[in-house]
C-alpha cells in the first residue's frame, strides 16, 4: 500500500512538471483514500505529549525570567525619571515663588511712586512731588538687586549641576555658562516684565519733568542698579515703558494749560514728535509693543490739538525753531 501511495505521488508530480494542468478527477478522488489508509492514526499518548510540547514555551524558565527581570528594571527607571521630574518641578515652583514675592514688593513701591507723581496734575510744586517719588528709587534699586541675586544663585546651582560643563575650559565653558544664564532668565522674565515696564515709565516721566529730555536705556539701568553683563534691562521693557510715558503726556498737557502754563504744549509736542520719529526706525512685530506704539500717534494727535487751540487763541509762546524761515531778517528790512 505504501508502494502504491509513492507511485501515485510520483505520477502526479511527474505529470504536473510535464503538463501544468491539474490531474484527472479520478486520481484526485483516490488521494484522500490513499492518504487515510497510508497514515496511521496517532495514539492518545502522542497527542498528549504534543500538547505539552506546544504549551511548554509559555511556562518555560526563560519566559519567567524575562517577565520578572525585564519589567522590574523598566519600572524602576520610570519611577526614577518621574521622581527627578517631581524634584525639578518643586524647585522651579519655589524659585518662582521667591521671584514673585520680590515682584510684589516692586509693584507696591511703584504704586507709591505713581501716587506721588499724580500730584503733578494738581499743580503742586514740582520739587515737592519729585522729592517724594525719588525716595522710592533707592528702594527699587535694592529690590532689583535682590532679584538679580536670586537669579544668580539659581543659575549657579543649575549650571554647576550639569556635568558636561566641567569638561570644558576657558572660553568654551564661559560661553556655555552665559548661554545657560540667558535662557534661564528668559524663562522667568514674564514674572517681572509688567512691573519693570511700569518702573521705566515712572522713571522716564520723572526724568522728563526734571530735564525735559528722554531717559536713556543706560541711565535707566544705572538708576535700577542693573548690570548688562548679568541681569540687564530688557530692551522691549524699556520701549514699552516709553510708550506708557507717552500715554501720560496728553493729560499732563491739559492740566498744565488749565494751570496757566501755556508753554507746556509746545515742549511736549516737540518731545513726542522726536520720540515718535525714533520709534519709526524700528521694525516692530505685530505684538504688544507694536500696539502700544500705535497708541503713541493718538497721544501725539491729542497734544497737537491742544497746541493748535493755543495757537488759535494766541496763547502759545513763539519759538524761534517754529518760524521755519518765515520771519524776515531785520537787517534785510532796514536795507535800502
From TrEMBL:
InterPro entries xrefs: Translin, Translin_C, Translin_fam, Translin_N, Translin_sf
GO BP terms in the entry: RNA metabolic process
Regions crossing the membrane: 173-190
CDD domains: Translin (cd14819)
Localization per Swiss-Prot or TrEMBL: Cytoplasm; Nucleus
SUPFAM superfamilies: Translin
Protein name, as recorded: Translin
The species this protein was found in: Dipteronia sinensis
Amino acid at each position: 500500500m505504501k508502494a502504491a501511495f509513492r507511485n501515485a505521488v510520483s505520477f502526479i508530480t511527474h505529470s504536473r512538471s510535464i503538463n501544468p494542468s491539474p490531474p484527472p478527477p479520478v486520481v484526485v478522488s483516490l488521494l484522500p483514500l490513499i492518504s487515510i489508509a497510508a497514515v496511521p492514526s496517532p495514539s492518545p499518548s502522542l497527542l498528549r505529549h504534543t500538547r505539552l510540547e506546544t504549551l511548554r514555551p509559555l511556562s518555560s524558565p526563560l519566559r519567567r525570567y524575562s517577565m520578572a527581570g525585564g519589567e522590574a528594571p523598566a519600572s524602576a527607571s520610570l519611577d526614577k525619571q518621574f521622581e527627578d521630574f517631581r524634584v525639578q518641578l518643586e524647585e522651579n515652583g519655589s524659585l518662582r515663588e521667591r521671584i514673585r514675592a520680590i515682584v510684589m514688593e516692586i509693584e507696591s513701591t511703584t504704586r507709591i511712586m505713581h501716587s506721588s507723581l499724580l500730584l503733578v496734575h494738581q499743580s503742586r510744586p514740582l520739587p515737592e512731588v519729585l522729592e517724594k517719588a525719588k525716595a522710592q528709587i533707592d528702594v527699587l534699586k535694592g529690590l532689583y538687586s535682590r532679584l538679580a541675586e536670586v537669579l544668580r544663585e539659581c543659575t549657579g546651582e543649575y549650571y554647576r549641576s550639569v556635568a558636561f560643563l566641567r569638561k570644558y575650559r576657558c572660553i568654551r565653558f564661559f560661553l556655555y555658562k552665559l548661554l545657560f544664564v540667558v535662557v534661564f532668565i528668559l524663562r522667568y522674565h514674564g514674572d517681572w516684565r509688567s512691573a519693570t515696564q511700569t518702573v521705566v515709565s515712572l522713571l522716564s516721566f520723572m526724568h522728563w519733568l526734571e530735564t525735559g529730555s528722554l531717559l536713556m536705556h543706560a541711565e535707566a539701568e544705572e538708576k535700577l542698579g542693573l548690570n548688562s553683563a548679568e541681569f540687564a534691562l530688557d530692551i522691549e521693557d524699556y520701549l514699552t515703558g516709553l510708550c506708557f510715558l507717552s500715554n501720560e503726556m496728553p493729560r499732563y498737557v491739559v492740566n498744565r494749560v488749565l494751570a496757566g502754563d501755556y508753554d507746556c504744549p509746545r515742549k511736549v509736542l516737540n518731545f513726542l514728535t522726536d520720540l515718535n520719529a525714533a520709534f519709526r526706525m524700528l521694525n516692530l512685530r505685530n505684538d504688544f509693543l507694536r500696539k502700544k506704539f500705535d497708541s503713541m500717534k493718538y497721544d501725539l494727535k491729542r497734544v497737537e490739538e491742544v497746541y493748535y487751540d493755543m495757537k488759535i487763541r494766541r496763547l502759545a509762546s513763539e519759538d524761534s525753531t517754529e518760524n521755519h524761515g518765515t520771519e524776515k531778517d531785520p537787517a534785510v528790512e532796514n536795507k535800502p
